[in-house]
Specification:
Elements lengths: L1 E5 L3 E2 L2 E2 L2 E4 L4 E5 H11 L1 H20 L5 H12 L3 H11 L5
Parallel strand pairs: 1-5
Antiparallel strand pairs: 2-3, 4-5
Helix pairs in contact: 1-2, 1-4, 2-3, 2-4
């Protein structure tokens, strides 16, 4: 498996903050999302975002038929992050207001 931080661009007006691509067994985290979290909350939260995004995508890799809710719950649990903090960094990563 490879992990990359790259510009994932936008699809249909929706920004994608991370993805798992089974074709090349790659987890990709959007560089612009990392930068958005860093600009709003600082480096520590940008690191947290990157860590939870990778954990979330690792869930999808291990459980191709798992749900989004399960992936979010897994990422929060393995990273030991409270739900409020998790949702805050995700909102910022998606470009929504904090
Ligand atoms: Zn997901």
């Amino acid at each position: 498996m490879i992990v990359e931080i790259v510009d994932l661009g936008t699809w249909g007006g929706a920004s994608l903050v991370a993805e798992y691509d089974p074709c090349d067994d790659a987890i990709r985290v959007d560089a612009r999302a990392v930068a958005a979290v860093r600009a709003a909350l600082g480096g520590a939260e940008a690191e947290l975002f990157t860590t939870v995004a990778i954990a979330h995508e690792r869930f999808h890799r291990a459980h191709p038929h798992g749900t989004e809710a399960q992936a979010h719950a897994y990422a929060q649990a393995v990273c030991g992050v409270a739900r409020e903090r998790y949702e805050r960094v995700l909102r910022l990563a998606r470009g929504d207001a904090a």
